[in-house]
Write a structure and sequence with these properties.
This protein is an alpha/beta fold and 270 residues long. The protein has eleven helices and six strands. The structure holds 1,4-dihydronicotinamide adenine dinucleotide.
């Protein structure tokens, strides 16, 4: 259901790889709600993904950028403002990757060069995005910046290894830049802590199916889907949430407030 919640707003959406991507669903919903935006992803993802299809569907242009490169981000923000004809109202950071997880390294056997890459891609890049936006004075007042996080930032999920530290960093950056951009431009910055979701990044984590089912059975509402996450993100880009900032917002069907559920008790008792 479209309500023109983003009518007249201009944005940048990072991280749509394929139809399963959370960023893909956000782009589709943002278009339905009347936004104009550019899509961006790492140059390598352009070759692997199907982002051209999404761009066509949303009538959006694509500007490749490796989110760890300040130079790429400078080019992205300059071009995005040219294409959209003005400053930016919303940004979605939907980026995550861990070479250690991809290569099956356990927590006790992490490769530290890859660890740094994980932090750079999945955490520090969020700082770089806002740094470039600030330096170019690219954001409109009352704008909204959202990044996607996971509860492994607060609790232990052994297979999430170095990504858990990247998410803790990401959430801390949201608070600190939220303060800064709030003071400077009345821009809000939040993270959404999303349920396990069947995407390329999600299913790459060891034991994904087990913790997907576990979270689903623990949560009174079940796991939040990528579509649900897109709807929540749209609400955070809209003017209905102007005073929400520096928060890590749980979007998990109730998982984070649970101790144990009857479904889990039943499963274990069997
Ligand atoms: P996805 O695999 O569709 O998206 C991850 C994106 O990150 C891809 O588009 C990839 O190309 C992009 N990326 C990787 N390296 C990059 C770089 N150097 N520069 C620019 N982009 C780069 O998977 P998904 O699940 O949609 O992931 C989006 C976000 O949601 C990530 O931050 C992820 O950690 C987070 N999240 C995912 C959950 C899940 O279970 N799928 C749960 C909670 C959070």
């Amino acid at each position: 259901m479209a309500n023109n919640l983003l009518k007249g707003k201009k944005g940048i959406i990072f991280g749509a790889l394929d139809e399963k991507s959370i960023a893909w669903k956000v782009a589709v919903r943002a278009k339905e709600e009347g936004a104009e935006f550019v899509l961006t992803n790492a140059p390598i993802a352009m070759r692997m993904g199907e982002i051209n299809k999404l761009a066509e569907q949303c009538n959006a242009q694509i500007i490749p950028a490796d989110a760890t490169s300040v130079e790429d981000l400078e080019n992205l923000f300059t071009k995005a403002q040219e294409i959209l004809g003005g400053k930016i109202d919303f940004i979605l950071h939907s980026i995550g990757s861990s070479p250690n997880i991809r290569k099956g390294k356990s927590y006790g056997d992490l490769n530290y060069d890859w660890f740094q890459k994980t932090l750079d891609i999945s955490g520090l890049s969020f700082h770089k995005v806002m740094h470039v936006a600030e330096k170019q004075d690219a954001l409109n007042e009352w704008g909204s910046v959202v990044a996607l996080s996971y509860i492994a930032a607060q609790r232990v999920f052994p297979d999430y290894t170095d990504m858990s530290h990247a998410k803790a960093l990401l959430e801390s950056i949201a608070r600190n830049y939220g303060y800064r951009l709030g003071r400077m431009k009345k821009v809000r910055v939040n993270t959404i802590s999303q349920s396990p979701t069947k995407t390329t990044a999600g299913t790459g984590v060891g034991g994904f199916d087990a913790f997907y089912d576990y979270a689903d059975k623990m949560s009174p509402l079940g796991n939040a889907s990528a579509e649900d996450c897109a709807n929540y993100t749209i609400s955070l880009f809209s003017d209905l949430t102007r005073m929400v900032t520096m928060q890590n917002l749980m979007h998990d069907g109730g998982f984070s407030s649970m101790g144990i559920s009857e479904d889990i008790v039943d499963m274990i008792s069997k």
